[in-house]
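Form 7-S
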Amino acid sequence: LALPESGTPVGTIVFLHPLPKAGGYMDSHITSKAANRLPALANLAILRFNFRGATSPRGTSEGSFGHGVDERFDLDAALRCVRENGLPTPWVVGWSFGTEVALNHALEHDVAGIILLAPPLHRTTAETLAKWNARAEIPILALIPEHDDYLRAPEARERFSVVPHVEVVEVDEGKHLWVGEKQTYRVLTEIVKRVN
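Output:
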């Protein structure tokens, strides 16, 4: 949990990292840069954690990979941590695999909004997406890299059309891993615009 050095945070982000089986973990570069920069620059609280079974330089998390199903319990625990620490209602920010966990499991929680970074939509069905229509008051932003490996803007607009309040934003020159400072800056700027 990264907090501003002083004062009360104006917003909270729960960050859900990319696919653990492909090397994603809580210190993946966008996630760690958000935690290192946004508390001071935007007065935000950032909670990041490893999903079950994720391996990182810090070790391997308890449990085993749950294919986006059992990770709901990790999300539950993270959102409980936010409540127990008296932080503002969180935005859930998922990156790649983390977007699937957000879309499939955040619906049942009190969240301020959802931000999807390069959502592949491999584990999220049209039926699951449509359930978000019952929560139209929750803003959903999908940042789609122009050169994404899994889902590009035209297909994203089509797939998300079942949820009219999803804002699809294509990021010029972007790639799935958001490589480089230009892409990092763009992603963090889009997050701050929504959460702050």
